[in-house]
Amino acid sequence: MNTPAAPFAVDQLIITPADIDLRRSPLAGHLDRETYVLGAFNPGMTRLANGNLLIMVRVAEALRTPIYNGHVHAIRWQQHDDKGRYFLDAWPLEHVDTADPRKFMLRGGGWKIMALTSLSWLLPVELSPDGLKVVAMHYDRAIAPTHDFQCYGVEDARISRVEGRYLMTTCSVSPERHSTTLYSSENGLDWTFEAIVLDHQNKDMLIFEGLIDGHYWAQTRPLGDLYFAYPPGSEWRAGPSINLAHSPDALFWKPWPAPGIRPHARTVATARIGGGAPPILTDDGWLTLWHGVEPKEIVGIYRTYWSLLDKDDPSVILRTQDAPLLEANSALTQPIDDLMYVHDVVFTTGIADGGDQYVVASGEADLACRITHIPKSVFAA
């Protein structure tokens, strides 16, 4: 049974949609329709050489009026005249289901097909060392679609620093594939696209912040519509789980045969799980923050949990806690309640050492960026 997450002394929103200047958006000047910030959320995070924190904010930019002339419209990037441009696609309303504000489903196929009501790009935002003050917003270093396989956007950055180099995984969205793409940087601000590293619908890839026996390691989360049942009475619940993979170079990944973190049968609060912040090495093992989803209505209830993994074999869970570490906090979003389109969602995406505490970055309600200071004592044995 899950008990409510404990409140923390420092817990606040640091970026909201009002903080984003769409005049400096990669989409500015491309469309003849007004856009707005549906959400500025799910920030990957790392610490820069100057001591400041860097969050990579997912900006979901949407049409102010997506439905007109009997059609719903989606924004799409496309290579055009040796440059990329943004276009609008129109879908007849009678052919779509618009129940979820984040997307619409196309009817009539033999499988699920959807399009998004927004297109996401990534904005680097520099914060003070404690994460509580914005120092700079680097629009000139924004990451936007540049390949066909990113035509519907670049989403949900996770940043790890390994052997002095910054590695950032992102989810690239297109009809071609729903893939994990890798960027690298020497300074955490200027990023180079490397490659597609995981293929269709393997989301929430988190690279461990350190090598294990000379190899890069990562948590992954492959998705599907079919899962085989565990035996009756099993302690595990079938469904999306956190798997492991390793690599000699962070480009070519081989799945690890032992399971990682799996949904437990004793609770529906973690019926579906996925990675949160990249695992960091502590004296006791790898600390990993991950999300659990309890089914409810369309989106579900997202909470943050934690586990401690063995230093040498991260498939071994040394300790964990059933109670959530973080839950959605309606008090934080009350001042922007008029912008809310989903509730009960906290999605943790970054962690940094802050001395006696960890600075934890999360997306709140698919709307804003949340910074929480969590004492290291919370994870002690």
TrEMBL record:
One of its GO terms (molecular function) is hydrolase activity. Pfam families: Glyco_hydro_130 (PF04041). InterPro entries: Glyco_hydro_beta-prop_sf (IPR023296), Mannoside_phosphorylase (IPR007184). The keyword Nucleus does not apply. Coiled coil: none annotated. It comes from the Bacteria. Keywords: Glycosyltransferase, Hydrolase, Transferase. Belongs to the glycosyl hydrolase 130 family. This is Putative GH43/DUF377 family glycosyl hydrolase.
